[in-house]
Request: fold
Amino acid sequence: MARRCQVTGRSPGTGRNVSHSHVRTPRRFGVNVQDRRYWAPSLGRHVRLRLSAKGIKVVDRDGIDAVVARLRAAGEKV
Reply:
């Protein structure tokens, strides 16, 4: 499964390592994605989401019910 946040859509970025001799090699900047489980009162069950650190803050700010409603409106399986 791709390392992508379900709420914010963040995915790995790309860039280059630059050594002391200035040789450039490709690299990936990973996303801090974590599996989180929330109780959704509107659904009456737990919901498991893959969230970045920013996505966790969004859920804390807006509430899990609002986030789940947004994901369902976007057509994502929750």
Remarks:
- The mean pLDDT is 95.
